[in-house]
Amino acid sequence: MTSPDSIDLKTPLGDEVLSLHAGDLVTLTGNVYTARDEAHLRMKTDGIPFDPKGAVIYHCGPVVQNNKIVVAGPTTSARMNPLTGFVLDAGVKGLIGKGGMSPEVRDQLKDRAVYFAFTGGCANLAAARMDLQGVFFEDLGMAEAIWQIRLDHLPLVVAMDAHGGDLFAAVEKSAHEVFQRAYPTCTGTRR
Amino acid sequence: MSSPVPPDLSDRIAAATANAIRIAEITLPPDVLERIVAASEDETSPVARRELMHILENIRLADERQAPICQDTGIPVIYLTLPPQIPFSSEIVDAVRKGVREATVTIPLRPNLVDPITRHNTGTNTSADMPAVHILPGDRMQVTVLPKGAGSENVSRLKMFTPTEKDRIPEFIVETALLAGGRPCPPIILGVGIGGTFDGAASLAKEALLEPLDQMTPEEMEICQKVNDLGIGPMGLGGKTTCLGVKIKSAGCHTASLPVAVNIQCWAARRATVEVPLS
């Protein structure tokens, strides 16, 4: 499964992430912390319950049963757009999710951190490479709690790098150009 | 006054519902799998190829681990066919919801169902009014389950066109895929409902997602090609495969209106039908 040309990374992440480029294939090993909307809101008011220096946040709401990860694919990262600045300020160096994030987050990542995309829906592929280590904010419920998970070579792609490179934005820009050429008179809603 | 549903029939409906959910959550229909395999052989970019290989490996692992394909196990959309001898009653809907609760514990499913405003989670994937059970007439009793995840549902669209705008329907469908980008977990499937009423178009779009992908009309294939031309690719990371298929269902509508709904489905196009034995 792991591509021979991928770069192996370990948490906590250091400045090695700053030299990555959008489109690089990597694997990630070590602890990550799941966090969705509610967990971000709680961290903002109550503080981050883990050491954020070099940490990686995984946008994910797993299915957990009997202290085991049953399935744990990525959730849509865009929901966390307005909630990400403070975790990067605290030293978080990696985000994992799907679908990419806003231009604001792209700016916040500059010279500090990277955003990795993990294949949406690949909840088993993820779970097969995961070991549950602990939980914070369990009262938020299964999907919204912060689960501490140890990864074993999870295959990821660098989608937003620390230099402003953004695979999603590049693809989106090109898609809009193709659409415009196909339907030049379209006056529909634009994002 | 119809006779009440016998308790053992209620149990069979619940068991068939739970079974249909289990099959849908763990095994992808062959027509969908075939399209993903074909796409993986067609992609040339390393990122797109790797994404599709992840998807295929994930499908294999779901079967091996007997675990749901995706952690967003969705909200089950349920279609029930009732033969003439079984009258429709609230007990039948109750039995279906019992099956959903059982499946939530036994598979297990992620509890996804919340109050729309307080966001309180019922923990069971059911509430007094959900999941919706759509009743259709049939010669056998069958329960069909379509677990619908939120990522693709959230970027679906409906537009009330004026009748003279009918030529703009294809561009509306393609634009819906464009605006969705990588968010609905492409490669996607587009269920399109044309006509009916405001609510009816949305129902048609959802029902279109139940149709197999191995048969597409020239019109459906042309829209599919236009979406693939956008180059959004698997997960929005670029590539040839953005759309696995387009299915259109239409119905008559008011002379002054033209509703069009596009329901987006992620690559994990889960659906299963199980027969309920009547005796």
What does this structure look like?
Chain A: Residues 6-170 form the Fe-S hydro-lyase tartrate dehydratase beta-type catalytic domain. Chain A: InterPro entries: Fe-S_hydro-lyase_TtdB-typ_cat, Fe-S_hydroAse_TtdB_cat_sf. Chain A: It is an enzyme of class 4 (lyase). The complex is a heterodimer of chains A (191) and B (279). By secondary structure, chain A is α/β, with parallel strands linked by helices. Chain A has a single domain (7-182), classed as Fe-S hydro-lyase, tartrate dehydratase beta-type, catalytic domain (fumarase), CATH 3.20.130. The termini of chain A are far apart. Helices cover 23% and strands 28% of the residues of chain A. Chain A has helices at residues 37-46, 85-89, 103-109, 123-127, 167-182; strands at residues 7-10, 25-34, 56-58, 63-65, 68-71, 94-97, 114-117, 130-136, 146-160. Chain B contains eight helices and eight strands, in the order αααβαββαβαβααβββ. The model of chain B has no long low-confidence stretch (mean pLDDT 95). At the A-B interface, helix 4, strand 9 and helix 5 of A face helix 3 and helix 6 of B.
In short:
The complex is a heterodimer of chains A (191) and B (279). Chain A has 191 residues and is α/β, with parallel strands linked by helices.
Question: Main traits of this protein?
Answer:
heterodimer, A: 191 residues, alpha/beta, fumarase, 5-stranded mixed barrel, two-stranded antiparallel sheet, globular, B: 279 residues, 4-stranded mixed sheet, 20% strand
CATH class of chain A: Alpha Beta
How would you sum up the global shape of chain A? Answer: globular
- Give the fraction of residues assigned to helices of chain B: 25-40%
Mean of residue pLDDT values of chain A: 93
Family (chain A): Belongs to the class-I fumarase family.
EC number (chain A): 4.2.1.2
Keywords (chain A): Lyase
Domain Fe-S hydro-lyase tartrate dehydratase beta-type catalytic (chain A): 6-170
